[in-house]
Amino acid sequence: MMSERGFRDVFYSAQDGLKLHARLYGEANPGLPVVCLPGLTRNARDFHALAEKLSTDATTPRKVIAFDYRGRGLSDNDPDWRRYDVTVEAADIVSGLAAFGVEHAAFIGTSRGGLIIMALAGARPTLMKAVVLNDIGPVVEGDGLARSAPICSARPNPVRWPRRSKSRRPFTEKRSRPSTMKTGGVLPRRFTEKRKGACAPISIPNY
């Protein structure tokens, strides 16, 4: 049943058994569904305003599915860090679409979501009737990945205020974050060394 929030929280199992989450808007709406895929450190909530608009459109209301990847949002964490991978996450989306009975859809992807869409286009092109790519392209340069390192290494904010005292240091304590101030605009070596080869072409399995 759809809640007063305008969506329903739905859960499904990935191929490896991990419990994953998505938001489902306009569940009974006919027509081509819309699939929303967020960025690397983001989640399904990013698409709430858009999903509300699309699912309540007066002319063509659509079903909208916004996914949380493994380890994000309400999806379970994967204990194996090596499985936080575009091709694995693409397979997770395929599992979700199968669980929700979606055979074709229009896809909207931001950043990493766009990379997942490209992986899906290679493995399951018949899924796609339309694609919107936001803040991503077919080539990701190493410099761009290096600039993303501070975002990925920063600690997440706690969900609730009472947790702050346990999960974060005091506001007055200076945090140590990667800086390019003293390195001529280049990230410290400990960040760039870990990302050598990160832009190598990915292999798209036939899952």
CATH architecture of the largest domain: 3-Layer(aba) Sandwich
- Give Rg in angstroms: 19 Å
In CATH, the topology of the largest domain is named: Rossmann fold
How many strands appear in the DSSP assignment? Answer: 6
List the topology elements.
Elements: E1 7-13, E2 19-25, E3 34-37, H1 48-55, E4 64-68, H2 86-99, E5 105-110, H3 112-123, E6 128-134, H4 142-153, H5 164-167, H6 189-192
Parallel strand pairs: 3-4, 3-5, 5-6
Antiparallel strand pairs: 1-2, 2-4
Helix pairs in contact: 2-3
Keywords for this entry:
207 residues, alpha/beta, Rossmann fold, 2 domains, six-stranded mixed β-sheet, 6 helices, 6 strands, 26% helix, disordered C terminus
Please provide a brief summary of the model.
The protein is of the alpha/beta class and 207 residues long. The chain has helices at residues 48-55, 86-99, 112-123, 142-153, 164-167, 189-192; strands spanning 7-13, 19-25, 34-37, 64-68, 105-110, 128-134.
Structural overview:
This protein has 207 residues and is an alpha/beta fold. It folds into two domains: 7-138, Rossmann fold (3-Layer(aba) Sandwich); 142-194, no CATH class. The protein contains six helices and six strands. A six-stranded mixed beta sheet has the order 1-2-4-3-5-6. β5 (105-110), α3 (112-123) and β6 form a beta-alpha-beta unit. The longest helix has 14 residues, at 86-99. It is globular, with a radius of gyration of 19 Å. The chain starts with 6 loop residues before the first strand and ends in a 15-residue tail after the last helix. Residues 167-207 have low confidence and may be disordered.
